[in-house]
Amino acid sequence: MTFRSLRILALATVVAACAPLPSVPEGPAVAPRGDPIGSLDVGRDLEERLLAIDPQDVTAADVRDTLSRFPAPRVVLLHGGVFPVHLAMTSFAQFMIGMGYPAAQIRHPADGSWSHSPYESSERVAGMIAWAYERDGLRPMMIGHSQGGMQVVKVLHDLAGTFAAELPVWNPLTDRAEARTTIVDPYTRQPRPVVGVQVSYASAVGAGGPSGVLPNQWGVIGRLKEVPDTAVQFNGYFLGIDWFAMTLADARLDPFRSASGRVEVRNVVLPAGYLHVTVPVTHHLPQNAEFRRLLDEYRATTEKPDEATMPGSYSDNFYYAADNWASIKKHWVLELKRLVRERRARAG
């Protein structure tokens, strides 16, 4: 790729990511203290509605009328490493909010930022995931772009104990490591190590390429495509042509894979017209009635989108947004069902 092409892509990022964004609630959100399972009180009828939802077929009405009345898992967004590409992940945060996900569970609990830098310590992110799980009773999710996608895999390996046998809990409200390497599991109500805590869903798009030579990624570069058991589901997104990540056309050449065979791993090849730098720029989709209808109808049933039926243009990044959103909704439902069933088991 020529220097001129790189400049054009950078300019496209700035223009797309700086487009007007919808207004959202401001300010940080403090995660609740206490027992997140025992304190759940939404009523039997609403619980029954939740338990009746098919996680593979979550509608806009399910989100609006049922899921929005429950807690939501924390979603940790990790942006790429070149300024101002973080604005692309901010755009994806606005997309999620426009589709009905609570802003408070995306924003950083203390400073209100939308996403984490890949240069931030991965151990810190792992410790924060354990902190959120302890408080919410819902396993968090992670979504990464470019070098942030590499960071997603690195955090999963941190949680798996690949690099160290112990990890401290990281409190995002104080921005400090706590003097403990265990949490109280909200299900067993017993201490358990941070190492071994899972996320329910993780995804990475455009992970790999020259950024693997940077010191902050040395530990994961040889393990980038090995997904440990600290994710329940992992979606790896590949662009048809991606000079930045050095992947061309077909994820089958070097796909993401479950290290143990127990993780649900999906490798999805996006259309070749999608651009590495701008693929998360999706904040405009919920504001368009036709896009919103298609997003609601989309089901993650195919590994490769049909470009002939792709709505809009490549710059809309529809399939990246739709496929991620389907998995986010799925695990929002599954985590809540797990929580409700545990609450009922205790009461029964």
Write up what this structure looks like.
The longest helix is centred in the C-terminal third of the chain and has 30 residues, at 318-347. A hairpin with a 4-residue loop joins β3 and β4. With 348 residues, this protein is of the alpha/beta class. α8 (289-297) crosses α9 (318-347). Helix content is 33%, strand content 14%. The protein has helices spanning 3-17, 44-51, 60-65, 86-98, 122-136, 147-160, 218-221, 289-297, 318-347, and strands at residues 75-78, 141-145, 170-171, 176-177, 182-184, 191-193, 199-205, 226-227, 231-239, 241-242, 247-248, 257-258, 264-270. It has 9 helices and 13 strands. It has a single domain, classed as Rossmann fold (3-Layer(aba) Sandwich). The radius of gyration is 19 Å and the shape is globular.
What order do the helices and strands follow? HHHEHHEHEEEEEHEEEEEEHH
Work out the helicity level: 25-40%
CATH topology heading: Rossmann fold
Our estimate of the beta-strand percent is 5-15%
Count of DSSP helices?
A: 9
Low-pLDDT ranges? 1-32
Distance from first to last alpha carbon: 63 Å
Highest-level CATH class: Alpha Beta
Mean pLDDT: 86
Gross CATH architecture: 3-Layer(aba) Sandwich
Count of beta strands: 13
The best one-word shape is globular
Radius of gyration: 19 Å
- Which strands sit side by side, in order, in the main sheet? 1-2-7-9-13
State the secondary-structure class: alpha/beta
